[in-house]
Amino acid sequence: MKTYHGSCECEKVTYEVSFDLSAGTFKCNCRMCTKTRFWAAAVNPDQLKILTGKEELSTYWDNPMHHFCSHCGTKVFGLGKSPSGKPMMALVLATLDDLDPRELAQAPVSYFDGKHDRFDRAPEFSGHL
Ligand SMILES: [Zn+2]
């Protein structure tokens, strides 16, 4: 587990987060993930601390609820509930500022076929995600 810092593009929203990048990241081909080029890692919601700009965050959707900066539009994370009701947070990896790109390039990626509501399998192709 490492601690990183991140922000939205305009830097009104800044945060600190601790998680284990080597535990894996994910991409999905559903409409929302495709439109936002969503590449995320599951983090424990207790491990993400908004440092500034909490009041700048707007939300979209219900589960997961996407949180984005209302000023610059950068999506920072999604907050949802697992089927068992456990809170789950997906952090947008592109918002991390002090993560070495080489480290990110080596992180394992899982792909989900969200387009067909199949989150237990990879889509037929995923090179574009
Ligand atoms: Zn912003």
- The ordered H/E elements are EEEHEEEEEEHE
Number of strands: 10
CATH architect. name: Beta Complex
**Form type:** globular
Percentage of β-strand residues: 35-45%
Largest sheet: 7 strands, mixed
User: How many domain units?
Assistant: 1
How is the CATH topology named?
A: Metal Binding Protein, Guanine Nucleotide Exchange Factor, Chain A
Q: Catalogue the ligands.
A: zinc ion
The helix fraction, in percent, is under 10%
**Unreliable segments of 5+ consecutive residues:** none
The number of helical runs is 2
Give the strand line-up of the largest sheet: 6-7-8-9-4-3-10
Which CATH top level class fits?
Answer: Mainly Beta
Distance between the termini: 26 Å
Based on CA atoms alone, the radius of gyration comes out at 14 Å
Mean pLDDT: 93
